[in-house]
Amino acid sequence: MTDRREQERPPAPEPLPIPVVDNHCHLDISRDGTPAPPVSEAVAAAAAVGVDRLVQIGCDREAARWTVQVVQQHPQVVGGVAIHPNEAPGHAAAGDLEQAVEEVAELARHPRVRVVGETGLDYYRTGPEGVAAQQESFRRHIELAKQTGKALQIHDRDAHEDVLRILAEEGAPDRTVLHCYSGDMAMARECVRRGYYLSFAGTVTFKNARDLRNALAITPPEHLLVETDAPYLTPSPHRGRTNASYLVPLTVRAMAATLNVAVPTLCQALSANSETVYGPW
Fold first, then answer.
1. Which residues, in sequence order, are CB contacts of 88 under 8 Å at separation 6+?
2. pLDDT tens by residue, 228-271
């Protein structure tokens, strides 16, 4: 049974001094039986604490269509569309993976869709039998990002070596983002060397995330982004409760402490990097 406290919205944190972007959220997904709030409400709550722009990610066919509708209605929101790696094996088994990617390609051409993603590899939830389909889908999405000139957002869970290998084999797009970065220091250095962006989520605030903070600490500010992955990965001290874009300031302040930089300085970098990757809202 879900605890009542977990269903309650965490209180709003202190606003940021300079607005930043939630680089990755799922405004369409509910959690713990609590419906997702209306998009206008989510956008307003985020703006009130200095998170004035959002990147909504739709990672199956239905969510991708919904994303295109939302970005046309809300100027504070731009979108990303893809077939999530965990969805790819099912499409491959049904024989319609190519058709699904083709629909994503059509949606990705919308001017307010700025991202192909989240794509990538997830070996945690999908067993060895799904690896080939995931890798095929990943390669198709990399190609699509380059064809459309959109940024690429990568989901990488328990698949670091294969993600980096496939990016090298295919040739990464100019703007490549490791969403919810989960690698170590060595991987962070390699990603920076290749020019990728590392997006940190609420996981960086967790007590047991020392290795993740070490990776953050050696990442130059010009390669950093911040995200929620809402409604998941809620930052401390609200871990386990439903996440939302208005909680980004908690992660930003934790990142600033790890980097030993002033919060306004980090906010400026995060905002500038987001505009570099996604363009103006």
1. 97, 130, 133, 134, 136, 137, 138
2. 999 999 999 999 999 999 999 999 999 999 999 999 999 999 99
Residue spans of the domains in the chain: they are 23-278
Does the predicted TM-score (pTM) go above 0.85?
A: yes
Dist CA 274 CA 177 (whole Å): 10
Rounded to a whole number of angstroms, the distance between the first and last alpha carbons of the chain is 41
Per residue in 26-80, pLDDT tens? 999 998 878 899 999 999 999 999 999 999 999 999 999 999 999 999 999 999 9
The fold adopted by the segment(s) 23-278 is TIM Barrel (3.20.20)
Amino acid at position 272, single letter: A
Distances (CA, A) of 197 to 13, 163, 277: 26, 14, 9
Q: Return the CA Rg of the chain.
A: 17
